Records
---
Amino acid sequence: MAALPVIDPMPPVAACVLPWDGTVTNTVATIGRARSDCGDTFVVDSGEDRYLFLFSAAGLHAFYTVPETQASKGIADWKMLRRKLPDELFIGRRTLPHELFGRVAVAGYLDALEEAISLQLAELDGGCEIELFDFSRRLGHRLGLASWAGREVLRSVRFDELTAALDALDGAEAFVAPERMREVALNNKAAERRAMAQAEEILAESIGARAGPGNDLLGTIVTRWDDTAGAERMAGITRDVILVHIGSMSNLFAALGWSLVHLVQHPDVLARLRSGQDQGTDADLASRCVLESIRIGQRSIMLRTVLEPVAVDDGSQAYDVSPGATLATFLPLTNLAGAPGLDLYDPDRWRGQRPVSPAGLPAEAITTFGHGPHACPARPFSVTAIVRVIERLFGAYDLERRFSGAEPRPGQIGGVARAAAPCPVAVTPRAERRYPG
């Protein structure tokens, strides 16, 4: 085993591992105990990796501001996802998720969103019961695939088969169910390769039925492969679509799911939302509800792979960190425990896009879509999309809670939380539909 990277001076080393390297029943509790035992700066040696965790105000600021050339978030994210995804999915890509959210493209996605919502709501019969995260996941698939796989795929007879394959391939499982990654590695990602091949086949059928490239994002992806032919060309196109979809949709559905769960759990907020929409007041309440649900739902471990020697100052000590180490912080320990009251749902803690309650928190103490150069470019689109779903769903239907509580999956260590147990609701059409569409 190679020597672990050097951190000088060496902070306290926590007596734990991360869940893809050993048994961790509750990730938040485990890292929380490490912080309690060791302080706001500590090291976790896990598997063949050394992680420097930072939680102080200065440490968080340093984490987000160190240049990407010195400590790469992109490489750290790739290292996590490749625990689940076949390596060949990453090779030779010509369209990447971060390219997707320019202003012109987003306008097209919002058109696709309306079609996706309409199809989803058409499935809701009076008196039916749905599970909120299943509902959100299916809607997320519809929205994403309509945006970059061509809207015609929404009506494919193989649509359900396609989404099942994408769910089996889903790279988010690397952090949602990290305990499974040892099994995935032992099986050499065989199930994932089968799922990828199935998704490629279905997408190739849909793309092949097009009369031409088209003037949507799929058309752009297709055109980027014009210098190739045959199987190479179609594999390139379909894998671009798959990676774009996995990279863009893995957390949107979960953020939508928690937004719906919290509104069902807080009928007073829902009543305000409906009243404000009807009367044209409190216009940004829905957006604030979304940001609050994402804040509470965040389970992201933020990672940055150190590429060249870097100095990190946590406010009390400067540490020289050698290449190969990973800088880390863990959002539930700041978002939910950084000050009294942060464990409670309160959309009024937001003013626009900024939290104002509790007062006096450092800028990086609460994170929804990231900070600085690594802030998620999909933020405006994601919030707008979830708000529109809220408007149309709660405008047309009443949702009666059929679950007692909703808790995050305890082993998750990344992304927006998945629920530990189903969150079913009974759906009943409202007598008077208030929102257009």
Note: The chain has a mean pLDDT of 93.
---
Amino acid sequence: MPRDKTANHIKIMAAAREEFLERGFEKASMRSIADRCGMTAAGIYRHCRDKEDLFCQLVSPAENKLSEWARKHMQRYEEPVKKHGKIVWQDSFIDMMRDVVYPDMENFHLLIARSKGSRYENFLHDMTEAAQDRFLLYLAELRGIGIKAPDISPRQLHLLLTAYLTALFEPVVHNYGSEEAADALATLEKFFLPGWKKLMGI
């Protein structure tokens, strides 16, 4: 479905955002969205296939930002290994939250906390699984070139990543304001980063 910038499309997206924020994906209705923007349901369907597509149009930019950050994050860790044969601390999910997620809190709140019933319902779990898979591959690469890597099982790593990402996204779930989110992130940084660095032998 084309993403246009016409006046009607902008009205629909604003109304959909209000509806999904207030009621969540599962309870939101296309009729209510139509009422909010003063259009008919048929008029809305000229801008989206269905409610799922409309929600996707709202949250996919946030999803794409996270995917792009994660891709570059892994590159930043893999390059020193390939070039110099050593682990170099780069950035962490703390930086992802600070630079990508918390400045765009409302959109990520939609994605994480208001998506039940949509294909994004398990987004945080899926993100944790993807991070686990990438991390295990990275550890295997380290061992493959003779670099000592942490001896951690997939189940143990899953526990750590679940605790880490759940804590980082808790302010998103509860839609913290910017100051409260920054304070929470500073506390989480002090708590989690020393442990990750120790685990990696840095």
Note: The two ends are 47 Å apart (CA to CA).
---
Amino acid sequence: MVVQAFAFYLFAGILLVSALMVITARNPVHSVLFLILGFFNAAGLFVLLGAEFIAMILVIVYVGAVAVLFLFVVMMLDIDFANLRKGAMQYIPVGIVIGAILLFELVAVYSYWQFAPEAAQNIALPLAEFGELQNSEALGMVLYTDYIFAFQMSGLILFVAMIGAIVLTNRTRPNIRKQKVAEQHARKASDVLEVTQVTSGTGA
């Protein structure tokens, strides 16, 4: 229990600090790097809760795809952040009011929060239906049995969207030089190379 408590406070502390640095760092690249650090520590907290599947998805999807995409976009775009920050101070009062409203809503929701009568039983036996299976195995059994049709349809929709994006961006435009592989393979040396006999003493 001591090791688990130490790991929890370690992950939670680094997560809070990295989340604060995401919104306070002046360099946007540093903000994205702190965001990646926060994702890793959140994944560590999920592992401590026994939700290793969610931790794996958090690392693979958010760190491996979303955060890296943010990093490349920030690094590749030539954005003058100094000009973007000009005049930002005038929006601080509005931001404070909105933040106070959101804080009041969170406090109100937490104050009136009540657990359902079945929550205690579900917490005590979260895997009662599947016995000793891990949560990843239990999720897979449910996903590929009861929800197999929805899973296959979602994959088909994503596949069609990917093909549509490729077709829309691969349109034919004039004055665009494109590689023609068939013509390159069929080209002979005589088509592109000319051998000229130069008499000795008459060259340039």
Note: The two ends are 89 Å apart (CA to CA).
---
Amino acid sequence: MPTLRDIKRRIAGVKSTQKITKAMKMVAAAKMRRAQESIMAARPYARKMAEMLRDLTASIDPALFPHLAPREINAVAIVVVTADRGMCGAFNSNIFKAVTAHIEANYKELAAEGGVKLIMAGKKGAEYFTKRGYTIYAKHVGIYQGLNFGTAQRIAQEVVDGFNKGDFDKVEIVYNEFKNAAQQRLTVEQFLPLLPQEKNHASHKKIDYIYEPTGDAIIQSLVPKHLNFQMWRVLLESNAAEQGARMTAMENASTNARDLIRVLELNYNKARQAAITKELLEIVSGAEALRQAS
């Protein structure tokens, strides 16, 4: 049975931890607000660029453009976007499970032949999949300290170069999409080749645009910008989702610490009361023994 001193030390330790979790929640909340503003500003531009590209590709032959033409899949690259740090609940572990399940369900035979290559964006994912023997094509760690568009450009360019060289024939991205402070949506998106708009898609309204210069020239110019910005949007989504997950995790940790402190204080009071009662009984017993002796 723990002594009063042991319980008191544990209460002090939990209170110290609670101070840390409260501070981390406040920091995460401040970072999340900035990250949320950034992603809300980026989404309309990314959505409109993707829409414009779909309209353009609906009337052209995808085979004429290397980033649009589907290939026979001999190798696949998966960009795994995780956090650089922990203490954000199930944020990272959900990505690990999703990537593992996705490979098992869709690329099991290809993975056995070494045809699944992972591009890691985030330290936690790099550590996890490296230890488990996956083929790591590239690592990008520490990217969220001063996250900027140049980082997204470097990752996108690396992916495009590998695709152009034939290192892989398809690229997918797995990341947490920001929904709100308490929720993230696990998302798997195809990055390359780009998915063109179906010509007879029921929801696609045919619009006869006049292009200057030609539509082909616009596509050649638009595709690199689209890929860079989509990668930037993914990193922003993941960053905002990470801060929201950390804020929620630290709030839960603070609440659990408060509940644990209450239980420990109750145990401390019970133990203290038992010790006082024991001392009183010893005093009374001693007095009674002296009275009988006299």
Note: Residues 215-293 form the longest helix (79 residues).
